[in-house]
Inverse folding.
């Protein structure tokens, strides 16, 4: 029975078109449909399920919290659940990394965090312009869309998207052109006609835009440039953060300290909606209620978010385990890329995949993988990249099993292409 999805639900639905099963149950890295098929999940709720589905270490405190009569909804009022989350976030994440950030809870999605970051950057600098990068993705509300690259998504706005310019991401040109050549010049040149921006917003790995991973030295160059010209640096860690690239924040490897950081997706740990915008204390110039919202700081999400930080980030054991999975994933992807001429590994950490030389292969491989019980999505402006985002908690066996399915799907899809080409 799937009629109601097609008759009542809007045409805007997307993932369910590639994966038409009705998913009923989930555990760890598995999803089971109501007709009893089990799928291995290398999609992880687009990065909202870094600790897998229904993780017992998070479920137990959630069930206890809900059954206890504790407050569920409280806007931004004080609750013990919020106190514990803030304390744990400070002790487990911020302090050990020497990060001095204030924590703001915007509405509970990634795009809300980005909107808050953009608004704050404009308010703090008194400037309007924001620079973002080619192939960036920052969300679907108007401010976030204005700093997003994808033309189809931008068109959906229906109005001009203004007050932002796109600049080339790392390796956009030939690898020969000096990084930030254009940007340095126009910022120096009072006749360039480019308004001095309030901020630059960047993803360290472009999750939706094709798994382009910026080099650490490029990120350091960007951070230096922002400091020199007094431009705020916003890192959108909505997808690449919460451990996805092997460290809690994706910018740790580069050793930079952004002025503003956007977090959402896996910050609640359990797939419950929650978002944070972090910023240097001097930037905390909001007036009370100036950026409001009904669903800021949802207590069940605080409970699971606290449990995730306690369980996985108190010591270094989990990060080490994730490191081993990263090596395993990249070895597997290397083998897949080597099996197709012109294919290359893309991405960083457990946010990685393979780009194919044509625009069709990745979609065909993803469809083939689905038939064999693996959920993987595509990424990039032409959906030319197969994108793997297994749970950080995945077992070595499940990761190998998924890679085997993907290898087989790649073989089947490329053989079919060669056959069609030969006819
Ligand atoms: N920023 C980045 C980097 C993202 O990947 C996404 C979601 N894919 C968003 C922002 C928007 O998050 P949300 O869909 O929760 O609004």
């Amino acid at each position: 029975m799937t009629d109601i999805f097609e008759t009542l639900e809007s045409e805007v639905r997307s993932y369910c078109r590639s994966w038409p099963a009705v998913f009923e149950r989930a555990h760890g890295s598995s999803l089971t449909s109501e007709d009893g098929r089990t799928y291995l999940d290398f999609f992880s709720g687009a990065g909202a399920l870094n600790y897998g589905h229904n993780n017992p270490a998070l479920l137990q405190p959630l069930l206890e919290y809900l059954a206890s009569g504790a407050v569920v909804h409280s806007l931004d009022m004080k609750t013990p659940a919020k106190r514990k989350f803030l304390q744990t976030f400070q002790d487990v994440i911020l302090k050990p990394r020497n990060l001095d950030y204030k924590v703001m809870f915007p509405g509970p999605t990634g795009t809300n965090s980005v909107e808050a970051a953009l608004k704050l950057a404009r308010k703090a600098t008194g400037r309007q312009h924001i620079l973002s990068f080619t192939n960036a993705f920052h969300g679907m509300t108007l401010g976030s869309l204005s700093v997003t690259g994808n033309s189809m998504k931008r068109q959906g706005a229906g109005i001009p998207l203004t007050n932002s310019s796109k600049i080339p991401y790392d390796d956009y040109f030939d690898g020969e052109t000096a990084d930030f050549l254009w940007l340095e010049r126009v910022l120096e040149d009072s006749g360039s006609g480019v308004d001095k921006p309030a901020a630059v917003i960047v993803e360290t790995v472009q999750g939706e835009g094709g798994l382009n991973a910026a080099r650490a030295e490029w990120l350091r160059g960007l951070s230096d440039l922002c400091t020199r010209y007094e431009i705020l640096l916003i890192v959108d860690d909505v997808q690449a953060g919460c451990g996805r690239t092997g460290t809690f924040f994706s910018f740790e490897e580069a050793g930079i300290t952004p002025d503003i950081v956007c977090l959402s997706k896996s910050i609640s740990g359990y797939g419950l909606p929650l978002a944070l915008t972090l910023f240097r204390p001097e930037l905390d110039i909001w007036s009370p209620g100036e950026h409001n919202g009904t669903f800021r700081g949802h207590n069940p999400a605080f409970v699971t978010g606290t449990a995730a930080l306690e369980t996985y980030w108190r010591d270094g054991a989990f990060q080490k385990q994730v490191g081993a999975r990263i090596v395993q994933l990249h070895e597997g992807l290397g083998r897949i890329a080597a099996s197709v001429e012109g294919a290359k590994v893309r991405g960083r950490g457990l946010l990685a995949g393979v780009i194919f030389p044509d625009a069709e292969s990745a979609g065909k491989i993803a469809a083939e993988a689905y038939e064999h019980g693996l959920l993987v999505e595509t990424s990039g402006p032409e959906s030319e990249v197969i994108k793997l985002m297994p749970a950080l908690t995945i077992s070595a066996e499940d990761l190998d099993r998924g890679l085997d399915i993907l290898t087989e799907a790649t073989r089947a899809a490329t053989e079919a292409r060669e056959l069609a080409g030969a006819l």
